Amino acid sequence: MLAGTIAAGAMIAQHVVGKATRDALFLSHFSVARLPIAMAVSSVLSATVALVLARTIARFGPVRVAAPLFGLNAVLLGVEWALALRFEQAVAVVVYLHTAALGAASLSAFWSVVGERFDPHTAKKVIGRIGWGASLGGVLGGGLAWGASKVTTLPTMLLAMAALSAACAWGVRELASSTPAPHAPPPAKMPSPSGFTALRDTAYLRLLALLVVGGALLQSLLDYAVGAQAVNEYGRGPHLLSFFAIFQTVIGLLSLIIQSTANRPALERLGVGGTIGLLPGAVAGLGALAVAVPSLLTASLQRAAEGSLRASLFRSAYEVLFTPVPHSLKRAAKTVIDVVFDRLGLLLGSGLTLALTRLWPGANVRAVTLASVAVAGAELLLAYFLHEGYVATLAERLRAGSLKLDATDIVDATTRKTLSRTLSDLDRKTLLDQIEAARASHAKAKPDGDGGSAPAAGTAAPADDVVRALAQLRSQDAPTIRAALRSDAVRTPLLAPQLLDLLGDDDVARDAMHVLETLGPAIVGAAVDVLLDEQRPARARRRAARLLAHGASQRGIEGLTLGLDAQTLDVRHACGRALVRLRSQGATLSFDAGTMFSRAKREVDLLLADARSLEHAFAVLALTIPSEAIQLAYGALQSPDAYLQGVALEYLDVVLPADLRTSMMPRLSGASRPAAPPRPSARLLDDLLKSKQAIELRLDELRRLRDRDTGTDPPLDRE
């Protein structure tokens, strides 16, 4: 963390010093009318460099690319300083192109390193802290540029930039070596897609690319407005450098204050999309003022708002948006998006600026500012779609991310699942007949005095089959009751109350359940009465809930919903599982989201030592939030994969309401299992299971371990 923070600070300080030096050098030797042309040429060069860098990162990973890139940047700056002593005007052009070509690429490579070292949930916190170092670097860089403008020449600033770039190289190496990646790297033989292929196939990445294009276009327009007003006010030379240095220092101070005070509240209350939307919202508001009153002050206010928010809240939220993207796609596409589309935006901005200045030469600043307001409005709309895409990508990551399991774990879980399904497919009546025949033969071998079940001499058996069956069901003798349950006489709603009473008897509950299942809707009302009767044993009530899960009756669903408020966790847990099962089978279920969130919050606030309490809270959430994703999130929290745990926590952090999130997230962070130590590749399965399959296996195992009716009740299918 410390190394990453230092590297971020040095990187942004070098970026700020470089931007001030680049602009001052260029505008000291060329007119402001040449600035759009320089932007356009540098954009093409930067895009070319980015394409090469993207392929390199996709092949070797950002960790092996970022540090050498910063080192190369330092060497080039040193060479340019030496040349500037004699060829300052020519070097002004070279420095402009160099900083544009490698500046954005190095920023992207650094944040790619950070993004690959942490899971999405941890990244939201870590990126904010490292972002604080970046904001501090902006302040220090602006102060360095301003102070140097008073005591030294412009070319000397290139040496300071070289030193800062060398510090970045050190920080990246330290960050990479001290923070193990929470996920397995892609297999070396697996071909990496190109950045444009990833963009073509992934709608979410296209949204991110549009965001970058719009942001760069916005920066280009605002840079021209500020540059034009500054030249009119201060002329050229050291005074211009001093203005840009002070201006960048103010932006750095603002970004540091915002990052320190507002980053975490913004992400927690507004979410990632809302935090992204703050930047275009502020630019649009201040842009309206700048259109009405064009001046250096209003142009500077608009540009300062954009720069300070971009360096703080926007940067933190933007990098978080990449964390759920599969790493093979991220490596291929991130540099392309960060640099190529950024340069494309600058190119479009330069062209738009040239067109506006030609069309309205007497009011060019006002026209450019008005265009920036329009672009900011489009960015606001895009922020909404990005939030939706972020949530969908987190859910997809839960479905498709890889989870590593030992072969022994998979065999064990698969065996359990296969056995449970095989047993559930057997002819239950035949199996029970065989068991009862064995018990009957064993009973005949016992002496009469050992509690045999034969009726007393002289006792007349009831003539009516139903009455005879009722008498047997009330006999309190398990073999007699089982014999009655095998007869057709008990399969009538008339005996439903007595059959439901048997659900409280562990010896015969399973057999009674089989009979009750055949009676279908006719006994739903009676089953609901048993479920909601607080005086009955909890085991009878939870089995009644299981029974109601076998039919999508509206009355049964209403009873199960009321059962979610039962006093006993056993009953609430069984009702939750039954409702989730009915929903997964396509039953039409409609619940008030606020009520369900309150029930889930109650379970979390009363979180017991019983692990089913947390499982039940997730079952309740699955009745309102997309069921598959919420259950996969719960399963991921029970897995040993640290990255999937982080994806699950981040998904919940996004979709849960604020009050429930406040209660739930601290408990979930502590409840997630620690990451398993890495295993040699020889011990891994040849093909990694998809996380959905692995999570379902894990949940199947956990539920059977926690099921108090295992071996007594017929197993429900996986809920």
Q: Can you characterise this structure?
A:
With 719 residues, the chain is mainly α. It has 28 helices and two strands. The chain has helices at residues 2-29, 35-60, 62-84, 88-116, 120-151, 157-178, 195-201, 203-234, 238-292, 296-322, 327-359, 364-400, 407-425, 428-444, 465-473, 478-485, 496-501, 509-519, 524-532, 538-548, 554-563, 569-584, 593-605, 612-621, 627-637, 642-655, 658-671, 691-706; strands at 402-403, 689-690. A two-stranded antiparallel ribbon has the order 1-2. It is elongated, with a radius of gyration of 34 Å. The protein starts with a helix and ends in a 13-residue tail after the last helix.
String of helices and strands:
HHHHHHHHHHHHEHHHHHHHHHHHHHHHEH
User: Widest sheet: strand order?
Assistant: 1-2
Give the structural class. mainly alpha
Strand content: under 5%
Number of strands: 2
Euclidean distance between termini CA atoms: 41 Å
Nutshell version of this structure?
The chain is built from 28 helices and two strands. 76% of the residues lie in helices and 1% in strands.
Structural descriptors:
two-stranded antiparallel ribbon; 719 residues; mainly alpha; 2 strands; disordered C terminus; elongated; 76% helix; 28 helices
